[in-house]
Automatic annotation (TrEMBL):
Domain Fe/B12 periplasmic-binding, residue spans: 93-344
Localization (cell): Cell envelope
GO cellular component terms, semicolon-separated: outer membrane-bounded periplasmic space
InterPro entries reported for this sequence: ABC_transptr_periplasmic_BD (IPR002491), Bact_iron-sidero_bind (IPR051313)
Stated name of the protein: ABC transporter substrate-binding protein
Family, as annotated: Belongs to the bacterial solute-binding protein 8 family.
Any GO BP annotation: iron coordination entity transport
Domain of life of the organism encoding this protein: Bacteria
Transport recorded as keyword: yes
Length: 344
């Protein structure tokens, strides 16, 4: 069986800055420890045990807390390709003007049809995997040459990015409403691409699996806290946050102070509101990672119940909060399956 190893920070080094160098913010769970250094020192040979078995160098812990799905395979994020409904014509080339619409396309299995995104480089969420990560990002105001090369059959846009669609001339443009929840947005994308039946089926499958997971894991008798670390504060995620919605669908309970729809900031007076049977923590950027480490290793944090019982786990902030769609929902659900009964 493949074994994981955790490299310790350099002697005399600052723990937070060392961790920041080896973890990618927004992709903490998938970061690889010092891969370049390992290759340089070993002639590109992988690390092995004395019997020759490969050793994983995936980062599995941060600030004494286990990372959920540290070795997530992002090539498996997107679901199987869907076909258009009976009597509906299909499209071959799709342009997206808002990266938020890529998650529904990933869940519909239509990543190969996306030919361009009118956004800046680096705006495609990493969790969507290499296929969508390789789609050209041609800027919010694409030049005519780039727009011509994309040559889309359909342009999916939102109200905030509608001006980008003007570059594609007479191409069919469909504006996806974003004022509803993530399920409504997913269904709107499916409808726009002639896949209404597939959209309904896929959402039903997810809801069914979420409910089964909750019953199987007795989620109704677990109280889970959601804590996000920013550069200078801790936030309790509300029930309307993306992760909060998924936990509700599973049937996981929240501690009484966390049952409001809106997120709120942790203060000296409400610090213990972060406690629960299990605490999922995440980090917003490098600064959030630094601040989070300081708090997670503090006496005040460690004196609470869940940290005392080693019931604190780290999750990917981009997936749990900064994205919202069916593909991300499956990743959150699978994280809960892997960890609801787990320990730090």
């Amino acid at each position: 069986m493949q074994r994981s190893v955790v490299t310790s920070p350099p002697a005399g080094g600052h723990r937070a800055s060392w961790t920041r160098r080896v973890l990618r913010a927004g992709g903490v769970a998938a970061a690889v420890l010092m891969a370049g250094a390992v290759a340089a020192c070993s002639g590109d040979e992988p690390l092995t045990t004395p019997d020759g078995s490969p050793i994983s160098t995936v980062t599995t812990r941060v600030a004494e807390v286990n990372i959920v799905n540290a070795d997530r395979d992002l090539t498996r994020t997107c679901l199987a390709p869907t076909a258009p409904d009976a009597g509906q014509s299909d499209v071959a080339r799709i342009v997206v003007t808002d990266p938020r619409l890529l998650d529904p396309l990933c869940a519909l299995g239509l990543g190969p049809k996306v030919v361009a995104v009118t956004a800046d480089e680096g705006s495609v969420p990493a969790y969507l995997g290499p296929q969508l990560g390789a789609v050209p990002t041609i800027g919010s105001s694409p030049e005519s040459a780039a727009a011509g090369e994309a040559d889309p059959d359909i342009v999916l846009t939102t109200a905030r990015s509608a001006t980008s669609a003007e570059a594609f001339g007479d191409a069919r443009v469909v504006t996806i409403p974003t004022d509803g929840d993530w399920q409504a947005q997913f269904q709107a994308v499916a409808d726009a691409l002639g896949r209404s039946e597939s959209g309904t089926r896929l959402l039903d499958e997810f809801r069914t699996e979420a409910g089964k997971t909750g019953r199987r894991m007795d989620a109704a008798h677990s109280q889970v806290s959601l804590v996000r670390f920013t550069g200078d504060s801790e936030m309790i995620a509300g029930t309307e946050s993306f992760a909060g919605q998924i936990l509700s669908m599973i049937g996981v309970q929240r501690p009484e102070p966390q049952r409001s729809a809106r997120s709120f900031t942790v203060t000296d007076k409400n610090f213990t509101d972060a406690d629960a049977d299990l605490i999922y923590v995440s980090f917003v950027g490098d600064e959030g990672l630094d601040h989070g480490e300081d708090v997670l290793l503090s006496d005040r944090w460690l004196d609470m119940g869940a940290p005392t019982w080693k019931r604190v786990l780290s999750v990917d902030d981009e997936i749990w909060y900064r994205s919202s769609g069916l593909a991300a929902a499956w990743l959150v659900l699978n994280d809960v399956k892997e960890s609801l009964d787990g320990n730090s």
